[in-house]
Amino acid sequence: MELPKEADKEVCQQLEQLAEAGAVLENGGHGDKVLGHLSLRDPRGRGFWMKRSGISLAELQGPQDFILLDFEGKKKAGKGKRHAEWPIHGEIFLARSDVNVVGHTHPYNAGVISTTEEPVEALTKAGAFFSSGLPRYRKTSNLIIHKNMGTGLASALGHAKAVLMRNHGITYVGSDVAECVVVGLLCEYACRDQLRAAMSKLTFKISATAASSFRSHRNLFVEEVWESLRRRVTKATGAEPKEGSGNYLDRFIEANRILSNEGVEFLNFDLVAFKDPSRRIICGLPELSLGEISGSDDLIVLENAPNFYPGVNYLKKVFSILPKTEAAIFCCAPSVALFSSAAEPLCPTGDEGRHFEGLSVKILPDQAIENIPPDTRVVFLPNEGAIILANSIEVACLRAIFLERACSIQIDAAATGLAWGWLPDSEQGVVGMTLEGQGQIENFWSFYKRKLDRKDAGQPLPGE
Ligand SMILES: [Zn+2]
């Protein structure tokens, strides 16, 4: 399709990214029919480029799906209709010279939290991003279709990165596409965690250290997360597996990809590490998400990985404290991360929970990791996630999958408010169910591998 002359090279490059942002946001739970929009400040001062109406975020293809509007809402270039809520964008650009990209969407969890006065806290990393405050717009629940409504929203936003709109949705901003999208995603994840915490009857605690350490790495984090998310939506079927250099390496790469395929991950935060036959500790490149680890080029010796990644730092510590550890995973999967901030211990509420009975430890906020017992299988890190320890890469990977479900079941059982509990293991008296024996590890492993292979081949199993 022919583009208007106003869409020069610089504009087009950024609108390409903004179109990818639509797909990334849709993947992150921001899709709502053909509602929601994104915009870019015009670098020549002519107004702003806004997604055209009538298509969903997921359907954005490129610059041809944006129109140029001036600050009065008059269309200056491009094909397609204008969204009625254009004043959200125009008024924020006028009020905030630091903002070049604006997003407005209706994700589910933020929608629910917007109906309450529940503060969004640093329960997890996503919440930590907003721990200095997430403002609210309370003037109306209607669409923002007049300039004075846009001005009101811009003033509610103030100097913040995002604003919750009562009974409606969220608006978020950034100096570039990367920042705007990541803020939007984190806002919805933070609301999801807050909502789940509010529904469950567990006791949640917040560590000041976890919240502030996350904020200090914000800029690095934003760029890398965005690049990782972009790669996911621009590749049709995810990472193509490359040749490893030996069986153990292939298993390691499979472990990363299986975890990603099972949803046991959070953005690009998680990290898997293991000891290779020469006893070096190897991990994935920390800037990659688990699903992107596809060949030996994507690996690094843990010792050489930079400490400013929280996962690198924690894994170095546990391998040195517990030298018998063969494999370990820094896991920030949603239920694991949320449960890490609950005061209650992990219980055998579901089948998977029995693997961790008596073998999980909760580090208290700001407490040192050094004193964990030697046979520990899980160390919960408050407001962050957990470290999973094992004697092989396969067991570590399976434990991570089991742990995510065990945490989820306990949170949801608690949320029912019913009399929930579990039966003591009177039969065996064994602490912690084991995977060893009767080919269990291989059975589970090959099942997850089959799922992965079928997905790669475009023939996922039913229910996937
Ligand atoms: Zn709206």
Task: Report on this structure.
The strands form 2 sheets. An 8-stranded mixed beta sheet has the order 4-3-2-1-5-8-7-6, sandwiched between helices. The protein folds into 2 domains: 191 residues, Class II aldolase/adducin N-terminal domain (L-fuculose-1-phosphate Aldolase); 217 residues, Class II aldolase/adducin N-terminal domain (L-fuculose-1-phosphate Aldolase, 3-Layer(aba) Sandwich). The protein has 464 residues and is α+β, with helices and mostly antiparallel strands. Helices cover 39% and strands 14% of the residues. The structure holds zinc ion. The site of zinc ion (ZN) has 7 residues, from loops.
What would you say about this model in short?
The chain contains 13 helices and 15 strands. The protein has 464 residues and is α+β, with helices and mostly antiparallel strands. Strand 6, helix 5 (147-157) and strand 7 form a beta-alpha-beta unit.
Q: CATH homologous superfamily name of the largest domain?
A: Class II aldolase/adducin N-terminal domain
Low-pLDDT segments, ≥5 res: none
**Share of helical residues:** 25-40%
Strand order of the largest sheet: 4-3-2-1-5-8-7-6
CATH architecture of the largest domain: 3-Layer(aba) Sandwich
For the largest beta-sheet, the strand count, sense and barrel status come to:
8 strands, mixed
N- and C-termini, Cα separation:
35 Å
CATH class of the largest domain: Alpha Beta
What is the overall shape? globular
Give the strand content: 5-15%
Estimated radius of gyration: 23 Å
Q: Helices and strands: which structural class?
A: alpha+beta
Bound molecules: zinc ion
Order of helices and strands: HEEEEHEHHEHEEHHHHEEEHEHEEEHH
Whole-number tally of structural domains: 2
- The residue-averaged pLDDT reads 92
